[in-house]
Amino acid sequence: MSSGVKSLEEFSTPQGRASMKQVTEELSVLDDSYNASPDATLAALDLLGEMSAGTRIAVLGEMRELGAWSDELHKLVGRKAASAATHLIAVGEEGKKLLEAAADQGFPSAAMWLATSARDAQTTTQDIVSGTAGRCVVLAKGARFMHMERVPLGLSGTHVGCSLSVCTKYIHCQDCPQLKGE
C-alpha cells in the first residue's frame, strides 16, 4: 500500500467540518458547525436528507456576510431544509427567514423552533431527541460567529459553561477555557 493511500485511510476531518459522530446507537450527529455558506449549507442538507433515520433534525444558525442577498439566501436554505429534515431549529435573527420559507413549503409549524443562541438550540435539540423513538440524525451548521459546535458538544455530553448567546472569539468552543465536561 502506498503512503498516500495509507494517509488517506488515516485521515479524519477537522472538528466541525462534516464529521459524523455516533453518540449512541440511535443518535448520530453530523457536525458541520465550523462555518456556513449557502452552498455548503445546501450540500449539508442534501446529506441530511439522504440519511436513513426516522428523525432528521436540522439545527441551522444564521449565515453571515451575505450582503443584499442575505434574505433570499436564508429563504433558499429554509426551502431546502423543508425537504431534508423532519425537525428544523433556526438560530439567530436571520433564522426567522429560514422558518418562514420552510413554512411556505408546507413544513409543519409544530416541528419548527427559533432559538436565540446555539446553547438554546442544543437544549431544544436534546428535548426532541429525548422524545424520539428510533434512529435520529442531527445536523449542526451555521456561521462561525454563532458557535454552532455547542449543539454537537452538548449532545455528546460536554457542557459549554459560557452563557454568551454569540461569541466574538473565533475559536472552537472545545478550545475555550470555559468548557466543562459533564
Automatic annotation (TrEMBL):
This is Cyanophycin synthetase. It comes from Streptomyces machairae. Residues 17-143 form the Mur ligase C-terminal domain. SUPFAM superfamilies: MurD-like peptide ligases, peptide-binding domain. It comes from the Bacteria. PANTHER family: UDP-N-ACETYLMURAMOYL-TRIPEPTIDE--D-ALANYL-D-ALANINE LIGASE. Keywords: ATP-binding, Ligase, Nucleotide-binding.
